[in-house]
DNA sequence: CATGAATGAGACTTCATTCAT
DNA sequence: AATGAATGAAGTCTCATTCAT
């Protein structure tokens, strides 16, 4: 896929009619399926359209080019992922710092376990589109959510919750990626969680706080 | 007319003459350069051959197909990376556990900083080739090196150094990846290092040890 | 980047629109023309597409690969050839055995004379594709047609018409091939026919029959 | 393989030294092996040289190009085949006409049975090189041998032995090719022979003779 | 709006042949 | 003489995108 010559990444039109929304949804779903079934290299617009039960022409009415499609799919995925993380953080506000962190680890692991394959496949898109901005935006959401949660800790105030959140999220995300990217978690799932939790807890505990 | 191919990943022939070795090296080097200059999606065998100053035919005399070339490049990169990590671990044997870990963090950050771009570009190859085995092998080397180092700690024996090593490496690797994959380290470099160090130190400290 | 192909011989899609049928026909026709004009070794998909007045892409939309194209062309040719032979056999039912055979010889020679060149060119395809099955199917049709005709002989019943048909067809086909494959029939056309007819007549006469 | 621009078909040099003869023989043998093992499309000079245990360069010292190699291989094969047929004819001189013919059928079937695969593979070369002349020469040898044999019949003189020989050989060769080209002779081997013999005997018997 | 046939640039790969060593 | 590394033209096939119906 060629990337250079100034490509439009935003979808062509917002589906106003119900029918359109269904079509777009089908296309999104089809993209993921093709991605999983045939791999990212073999993904092409014709296959996606076929799977979605529409013609290529129709696909191109909703997305001006392949990149915009992938971009939209990625965006939607990240949005939903972060929605869930935010919800998890909100649900845990007001507890003890270490417990809150434990909750985040748990939530993130669970979400990722459910969709390890999709996650992996989409990573290809990130590189292909150089869609780092989109990922950054997602990371910011995650950090903000975690930081906001940490601010409500009932056992002391962090001097820089944002910084803590940043490292905690990096550690969780990175670790999880490392284990789930390999198909067989070489550690029993529970073990990863325990160790990762221990690491984050001890980090949070070590981070300076004013009571 | 082709009749029924077969995808092979191992290189085609070992260069017997001195001339050949030079050629193969040039091809490796060219691959990295093209990868960095044009991105992984734009990489094609013609460009690589051109950059290496040879003809496509020559390239295909050493690698039966594009995949085997990328595979070999990746393998070589990971080998060298792990060589450096192992050296760093060995140089720090026999210290206090937390200090050793600090050293590893430092070393890994340094290595990765030097080649963030290449590292990122190669990650695409991992996905495209589904070369997880190769990555796994590298990870094992890293874990073994760290575990071996931890076993020489002069301030107490870990009950399961392998497990500690695993999580520590995952955290370091994951965190680093997250920050370096975004071109601009959003944290001052020093800050990442400080926080990551703190996290790993506190984890190691928290891990059970028998004096 | 290709990952793992698979050689398919069946056509890719059935033309649904009228336009498609025209295209496919043009491609068939073009294949034969290129075959005759440049020889089988020089035949390539680009030339065929050009001759057919379409782009390579179009060609590949109907045939997944070069082999399937050649296969289809061969199949169509054999089908038509056998259609004509069957018609000739049917038209001669109910005569004297030797006369019927004479008719078959005549018919086959005529058909082949008309398309000696194509026939020769296609033979290369049979070898290249190892499309013996296709040829076998055609031979079976021929044998069945001849045997059925022989069964209607008004001058005695053959004990094994199938066996007679088999040898008769082999002799006719083989002999014809031998003479037409060399561009210049070294025997005056009439002479071949006369001799071949004599051979087949005497064979049929010699074969056991019950009045 | 390109065929047009005036290509030299004769071998580059007649091996004068024993060593050369061995090399050339090895190359011939290797060509057949590669032909059988990988098929005619995949046959290439490098593979042949490898199999023969020499380098491509050496191969090109004996044959100016690929075509001349194939040409030589074919020529040698046909020569040997006809040597055997001639021998068979000579051994049967002076018998009854029908018995002599029976002998030829027998001999030809036996020879071809032994090397059906090679025979088939070489046929490709005939087409690729358009080496009909070579084949014609072989056919002439066969016809001459059979005609000469027929002239010694002790039971009557044929008016045109050459013509009889021509048709008999065409029938035998064509029939045999038809049955052996299909891997599985659909008739029990003995049955082919019996029927073919009957056909040729009755033809020879029917052909005019002066006692 | 939808369809799907058509396009064609461009990617991968092969292989006959040469020539420096 | 022998070797085998290097060449590069040519062939096969893919796929994003357009447009007539």
UniProtKB/TrEMBL annotation, chains A, B, C, D:
HTH tetR-type domain sequence ranges: 21-81
Coiled-coil positions: none
Record-linked Pfam families: TetR_C_15, TetR_N
Keywords: DNA-binding, Transcription, Transcription regulation
DNA-binding region: 44-63
Keyword Transcription regulation annotated: yes
InterPro entries from the UniProt entry: Homeodomain-like_sf, HTH-type_TetR-like_transc_reg, HTH_TetR, TetR_C_15
Name under which the protein is recorded: HTH tetR-type domain-containing protein
Native organism: Phyllobacterium phragmitis
């Amino acid at each position: 896929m060629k990337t250079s010559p100034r490509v439009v990444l935003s979808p062509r039109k917002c589906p106003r009619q119900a029918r359109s929304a269904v079509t777009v949804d089908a296309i999104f779903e089809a993209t993921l399926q093709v991605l999983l079934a045939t791999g990212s290299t073999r993904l092409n617009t014709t296959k996606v359209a076929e799977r979605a039960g529409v013609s290529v022409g129709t696909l191109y009415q909703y997305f001006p080019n392949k990149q915009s499609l992938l971009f939209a799919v990625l965006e939607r995925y990240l949005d939903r992922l972060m929605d869930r993380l935010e919800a998890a953080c909100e649900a845990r506000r007001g507890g003890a710092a270490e417990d809150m962190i434990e909750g985040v680890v748990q939530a993130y692991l669970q979400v990722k376990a459910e969709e390890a394959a999709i996650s992996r496949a989409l990573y290809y898109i990130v590189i292909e589109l150089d869609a780092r901005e989109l990922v950054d935006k997602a990371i910011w959401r995650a950090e903000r959510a975690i930081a906001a949660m940490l601010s409500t800790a009932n056992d002391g105030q962090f001097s820089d919750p944002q910084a803590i959140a940043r490292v905690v999220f990096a550690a969780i995300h990175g670790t999880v990626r490392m284990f789930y990217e390999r198909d067989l978690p070489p550690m029993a799932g529970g073990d990863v969680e325990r160790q990762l939790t221990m690491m984050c807890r001890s980090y949070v505990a070590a981070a300076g706080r004013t009571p």
